[in-house]
Design a protein that fits this description.
Layout lengths: L4 E5 L3 H13 L3 E5 L2 H10 L4 E4 L8 H11 L4 E5 L4 H10 L3 E4 L4 H17 L6 E3 L2 E4 L4 E4 L2 E4 L2 H13 L6 H8 L8 H15 L9 E3 L5 E3 L1
Parallel strand pairs: 1-2, 1-3, 3-4, 4-5
Antiparallel strand pairs: 6-7, 7-8, 8-9, 10-11
Helix pairs in contact: 2-3
């Protein structure tokens, strides 16, 4: 099992290659992108556990890329940038970054911060694996196996499924899901739950309109079966 799946995004080719090789040598599964547009294409193929991105890239800067990533899913982001002003760090950490490392960086410190972020996220998902007939859920790895086919899950989807799994066979209300899955959001809306349920059914069910595993409870809420 790898340390975690990382997506490195930087237009500095030499830095990108060197850092990717060192992280891979330390047990991480590393994907690379030399631009924001390339990073978005990579996200279409697989979800990383953490995105590490530079801020000062041409065409699409790091902040724009981070905004587009967060519009897709709440994938954690660590900024690795030469922009070192205190105001910039505070603003970015407030809005989208889990952490901020300034270039030139100390590799040992960077790895320690990466592991700290990944460990904190893993601690939010205590469920290792659960089997539901033709569906196997592995929330900590952000994966599901649907009739032998691997499916990637976003961090939100993983927390959502782990919350339902921890309550089986009971259902979990929309309000409880908002409190547990979107605990860090200041303005969580029931629509978050509905959209996540719909997306998960499209990924995990044979027929999203007639689900067998992610069920709506007539009394309110959702449950796994």
């Amino acid at each position: 099992m790898t340390e975690g799946r990382l997506l490195l995004v930087d237009d500095d080719t030499a830095l990108l290659q060197t850092l990717a090789e060192r992280l891979a040598g330390d047990g991480f599964d590393v994907m690379r992108a030399g631009s924001g547009a390339e990073a978005l294409k990579v996200l279409d193929e697989a979800w990383p556990d953490l995105v590490i991105l530079d801020l000062t890239m041409p065409e699409m800067d790091g902040q724009t890329l981070a905004t587009r990533i967060k519009a897709r899913a709440d994938i954690p982001i660590l900024v690795l940038s030469a922009v070192a002003t205190v105001g910039s760090k505070a603003d970015l950490i407030t809005h989208f970054a889990e952490d901020y490392v300034t270039k030139p960086y100390d590799y040992v410190e960077l790895v320690a911060r990466i592991r700290r972020v990944l460990r904190r996220l893993a601690d939010q998902i205590p469920i290792e694996e659960i089997e539901l007939g033709d569906l196997t859920l592995t929330p900590r790895k952000r994966e599901a196996t649907v009739r032998g086919r691997k499916v990637s899950l976003s961090p939100t989807e993983s927390r959502f499924l782990a919350t339902l799994a921890a309550s089986m066979p009971r259902s979990v209300t929309t309000e409880q899901l908002l409190r547990k899955v979107w605990a860090d959001s200041d303005a969580a809306d029931p629509a978050y739950v509905w959209v996540t349920v719909r997306r998960l059914r499209q990924k995990l069910e044979i027929d999203a309109d007639s689900p067998n595993h992610l069920l709506t409870d007539p009394a309110g809420g959702y449950r796994l079966a």
